[in-house]
Specification:
There is one protein chain. The chain has 144 residues and is mainly α. The protein has seven helices and no strands. The N and C termini lie far apart (54 Å).
Length: 144
């Protein structure tokens, strides 16, 4: 088997694609919506349906799932999708079994916040230790 396997070729391309978008925020938001939709189908006696045959119970997690996917696929609109995502996540508290028994609600809220706070084209942060070492080395170079 050669060193240039297909796995090694697609991995850097995927990492570059993922780095240019709020991937983890969108993924958590989509997973939160999927988890809430999954708990809607659970055969537990604690499931409650509010509204017209539980329409809102299915609508809000679907909106969360779509907002998560759209955040990943079109990062230019991430602010709009993250705001709609957090509002629908909080709305599932009342309409979808306490937000999928708190798990989907938490995933959606964290994912929306991560997508909202993501900044494109930001320089990587330099650690405090590295800045001190650079300052010491430049100070020593000036003294010589």
């Amino acid at each position: 088997m050669s060193e240039d396997t297909p796995r090694q070729e697609w991995r850097p391309a995927f990492d570059g694609w993922r780095a240019r978008r709020p991937f983890w925020g969108g993924l958590l938001l989509a997973l939160g919506g999927a988890e809430i939709l999954f708990t809607e189908k659970a055969s537990l006696k604690v499931i409650m349906h509010i509204g017209m045959q539980g329409l809102a119970g299915y609508l809000l997690p679907t909106v969360m799932l779509l907002c998560g996917l759209l955040t990943i696929l079109s990062p230019g609109q991430r602010l709009f999708y993250s705001i709609i995502g957090i509002l629908s996540s909080l709305g599932t508290w009342l309409t979808s079994n306490l937000g999928g028994f708190f798990i989907g609600l938490a995933l959606g809220a964290v994912g929306s916040c991560m997508a909202f706070g993501w900044l494109p084209d930001q320089e990587p942060r330099v650690s405090r230790r590295k800045r001190r070492e650079e300052a010491k080395s430049s100070a020593q170079a000036v003294q010589l």
